TrEMBL record:
<dbReference type="InterPro" id="IPR036390">
    <property type="entry name" value="WH_DNA-bd_sf"/>
</dbReference>
<keyword id="KW-0489">Methyltransferase</keyword>
<dbReference type="Pfam" id="PF00891">
    <property type="entry name" value="Methyltransf_2"/>
</dbReference>
<protein>
    <submittedName>
        <fullName>S-adenosyl-L-methionine-dependent methyltransferase</fullName>
    </submittedName>
</protein>
<dbReference type="GO" id="GO:0032259">
    <property type="term" value="P:methylation"/>
</dbReference>
<dbReference type="InterPro" id="IPR001077">
    <property type="entry name" value="COMT_C"/>
</dbReference>
<dbReference type="GO" id="GO:0008171">
    <property type="term" value="F:O-methyltransferase activity"/>
</dbReference>
<dbReference type="InterPro" id="IPR029063">
    <property type="entry name" value="SAM-dependent_MTases_sf"/>
</dbReference>
<keyword id="KW-0949">S-adenosyl-L-methionine</keyword>
<dbReference type="InterPro" id="IPR016461">
    <property type="entry name" value="COMT-like"/>
</dbReference>
<dbReference type="InterPro" id="IPR036388">
    <property type="entry name" value="WH-like_DNA-bd_sf"/>
</dbReference>
<keyword id="KW-0808">Transferase</keyword>
<feature type="domain" description="O-methyltransferase C-terminal">
    <location>
        <begin position="195"/>
        <end position="391"/>
    </location>
</feature>
Length: 417
């Protein structure tokens, strides 16, 4: 479009063209058009990803251009939104609404012990965010968003976000001022908000909050691009042949299950802490995979005792500052034979303005959460390179696989001794 065209006109034209193309694609494939109707379940074919990205960014830019500066700040600073999401989740409002049906403010109020006008005030706030709907005065119905919130993992995440992440996040600046540049897990915003307790302390001593934390982390699987089922597609696992893989920090074997299910030549040793192993690990492993997945208690920072051609780390480094991440890498060295591979599946943080802005906003807010919880961080590619080099020059980064539409890249590192 001509250089003098006002930005809002340019954006509107772009939106108009892209929406028409998107709708054409959806209609051609018999897919529903986006809607807040509770029956809408978003499914977008891969060939519309770019259209959606450009529409999301253009419509957000248009929206933010048209707001006054104070309202733009208000949009991003709006803490009450999270309080309302917390309320809807904590009182489990979505579970009270029959699918396809409705329930009155009054009845919800009776269930939760609040007067009608009090619950109405809260829920109309939720309605202003498209969470819930008032199809007729006084009645509450689902939208596609409240329906999604009824999923226990998502409900658990919302509660965790409101009760644990948010209070800690309000202390980010205080923590940075108190402990500038700290990489320590006990010098964080979380610690300031929790009477000196770190995340690990809270998990060890407060079972209810530990459960909320686990639920919060469980919701990661629902973030587009993070789902464990994508694991087989992000790397050429078949090229490893008959390989034994040590999955360091492999939790309850979720990744091991996905890998062995899809690649019959692979066997996996899952290593994690005693707490995570619980009754020895393996509770999730289906019978037919049990002979190819074994579990081992192993502390992340302890010297590696298992020699294997491949070591796999999934989301193992981002929760930690560099000095700790470096220690994990160094701890592998005693077991490494020349040519051993380290496959690191983690975020490779995009530079500013490289990926669609709506994705960048999400990634940057997750990055802040990592800082809050333990002074962890997402790393840019040059930071990954620096981390590997600082651990040992013999860690050679061979390749970075960042599959399209997947937020998690795989860094392929060879031990060149
Ligand atoms: C962010 S989770 C990633 C889990 C899994 N790899 C995945 O992709 O879902 C980090 C894992 O590292 C483990 N971990 C953290 N600190 C540890 C330690 N000191 N020793 C052993 N495992 C540890 C945790 O128990 C957890 O399973």
């Amino acid at each position: 479009m001509a250089g003098n065209t006002p930005r809002i006109v340019e954006l509107a034209a772009q939106i108009s063209t892209s929406v028409a193309q998107l709708q054409e694609q959806l209609s051609a494939q018999g897919l529903p058009s986006p809607s807040f109707d509770e029956s809408f379940n978003a499914t977008y074919p891969p060939n519309v990803t770019q259209l959606r990205d450009s529409l999301l960014d253009a419509s957000a830019e248009l929206h933010e251009l048209l707001l006054d500066p104070l309202m733009v700040l208000f949009k991003f600073a709006s803490i009450s939104n999270l309080a309302i999401i917390d309320l809807v989740a904590r009182y489990k409002i979505p579970e009270m609404i029959p699918p396809g049906g409705r329930i009155s403010f009054e009845e919800i109020g009776q269930k939760v012990g609040l007067e009608t006008n009090v619950i109405r005030r809260f829920l109309r706030n939720a309605m202003a965010m498209h969470i819930l709907e008032e199809p007729e005065p006084g009645m509450v119905a689902h939208t596609s968003i409240s329906k999604f919130l009824a999923n226990p993992a998502i409900n658990g995440w919302a509660e965790f976000e409101g009760r644990d992440t948010w209070p800690a996040s309000t202390r980010i600046v205080d923590a940075v001022q108190k402990w500038p540049n700290s990489q320590l897990p006990n010098e964080t915003a979380w610690v300031l908000a929790n009477n000196g307790k770190s995340v690990q302390d809270v998990i060890a001593t407060e079972p209810e909050r530990a459960m909320r934390f686990a639920n919060g982390m469980g919701a990661i699987d629902y973030v587009p691009g993070y789902n464990m089922s994508l694991l087989p597609t992000v790397y050429d696992w078949a090229s490893l042949g008959n390989a034994k893989i040590v999955n360091v920090g492999g939790a309850m074997g979720q990744a091991a299950i996905e890998l062995t299910k899809n690649f019959p030549n692979l066997t996996v040793i899952v290593q994690d802490s005693a707490a995570m192993m619980g009754g020895g690990g393996g509770q999730l492993v289906p019978a037919e995979l049990k002979d190819r997945i074994t579990f081992q208690e192993h502390e992340l920072f302890a010297p590696q005792n298992e020699t294997a051609p491949v070591y796999f780390f999934r989301l193992a480094f981002r929760g930690l500052g560099d000095q700790f991440a470096e220690r994990i890498l160094k701890a592998q060295i005693p077991a490494l034979e020349p040519g051993a591979k380290l496959l690191i599946q983690d975020v490779v943080m995009p530079e500013h303005d490289v990926v669609p802005l709506w994705k960048e906003r999400t990634q940057r807010s997750v990055d802040m959460a990592l800082q809050v919880f333990g002074n962890g961080r997402e790393r840019y590619l040059d930071e990954w390179k620096a981390l590997l080099a600082a651990a040992d020059k013999r860690f050679v980064l061979e390749k970075v696989h960042v599959p399209k539409d997947n937020l998690l890249g795989v860094l392929e590192v060879t031990w060149k001794a």
